[in-house]
Amino acid sequence: MAADTPAPRADAPPSRPRPHTRRQPWILTYHSVTDPGDDPYGITVSPDRLDEQLSWLRGRRLRGVGVSELLRAGAGRRGLVGLTFDDGYADFLDEALPVLRRHGFRATVFVLPGRPGGVNEWDPLGPRKPLLTHEDVRRVAAAGMEVGSHGLCHQDLTALTDEELRRETRHSRELIGDLTGSLPEGFCYPYGYVDRRVADAARTAGYGYACALAPGPLLSRFALPRTHISQADRGVRLWAKDLRHGLRQVTSPAAGHRSAGRARAGGPR
Ligand SMILES: [Zn+2]
Predict the structure, then answer these.
(1) Residue 82's beta-bridge partner residues?
(2) Which three-class secondary structure state does DSSP give residue 187?
(3) 186, part of any domain
(4) pLDDT at 235
(5) Domain range for residue 97?
(6) In CATH, what number is assigned to the domain containing residue 28?
(7) Residue 268: inside a domain, yes or no?
(8) Residue 155 Cα to ligand 1 middle (Å)
(9) Which of 58, 108, 137, 236 could make an SS bond with 66 (beta carbons 3.0 to 4.6 A apart)?
(10) Distance between CA atoms of 36 and 218, rounded to whole angstroms?
């Protein structure tokens, strides 16, 4: 035992693990919030289940915030959890936002300014889900939510040329800035696919952070790990995911470690 570690007192209660207090912030990944009846990719959570999941967080004295707010809190982020909604589905405004407001939570919505009012054509199995229009993106920002970029059109950025990559990162940032009146701080890699070149492009485009899913050795402020949340996630499963996130911090190399490898996460988009 280290000299500066006090010996446990015989009458002290056993210490309980509190994974969300660990070094890397805990960030949850949502996509669509609506009826999950037809959901081959497991990206849809019902409004009732979202309500239940946010109640679970509150029961653990965690408050949901956007990722910028989470990162700004620094050491004070102990009671915070990042909430993210990828792809900019139109159901965010009607289904997710009322639930977030009921809990007093905020979130980051990663939108696709190259597909205003479009659909999720990148998912071959469907179902087709409408995306936010430009006016909707303004409403999301006006509601106090953080708007971040998911690129222009939801492409695998690791497969693009340097010029295409620059457009997906830099031009999407400019378009969102024009819509909301402020340049976005956050970027999110489509499919969670990121390699060193892509992470460097996000940084060069002016973002302050970027979200991945399971970035492995690329783990850094520009490849933040996140936990996918599904309709099946309730008490014990959420607890297990929180614990797994905490353990991942123990097994991951130091932030900023350089690697040429690409982080490919299975599952969600
Ligand atoms: Zn996506």
Answers:
(1) 27, 65
(2) strand
(3) yes
(4) 86
(5) 22-251
(6) 3.20.20.370
(7) no
(8) 9
(9) 108
(10) 33
The closest alpha carbon to 264, from 211, 204, 213, 206, belongs to: 213
**Rounded distance from Cα 131 to ligand 1 centre (Å):** 11
Q: Is 262 exposed, middle or buried (0-12, 13-18, 19+ CB in 10 A)?
A: middle
Within a domain: 269 = no
Mean per-residue pLDDT, 216-230: 95
Please say whether the dihedral angle defined by the alpha carbons of residues 152, 40, 226 and 256, taken in this order, is positive or negative: negative
pLDDT digits (tens, 9 = 90+) for 227-248: 999 999 998 999 999 888 887 7
pLDDT score for 247: 79
CA distances from 217 to 29, 159, 199, 243, 257 (A): 20, 19, 12, 20, 6
* Span from the CA of 106 to the centroid of ligand 1 (angstroms): 20
169-to-90, 146, 152, 198 alpha-carbon distances in Å: 22, 17, 8, 9
**Cα(155)–Cα(194) distance, rounded to whole angstroms?**
11
Distance 258 CA to ligand 1 centre (A): 25
Structure tokens at 220: 């850094």
For the CA atoms of 226, 45, 82, 99, what is the dihedral angle to 10 degrees?
Answer: 180
Distance from residue 247's CA to the centre of ligand 1 (Å): 25
Which has the closest alpha carbon to 101: 151, 56, 50, 175? 50
Cα of 190 vs centre of ligand 1, distance in Å, is 5
Count of domains forming the chain: 1
Q: Is 261 among the domain residues?
A: no
Distance 183 CA to ligand 1 centre (A): 20
How buried is residue 6: exposed, middle or buried, by Cβ count under 10 Å (0-12/13-18/19+)? exposed
Are 226 and 28 a contacting pair, CB within 8 Å?
Answer: yes
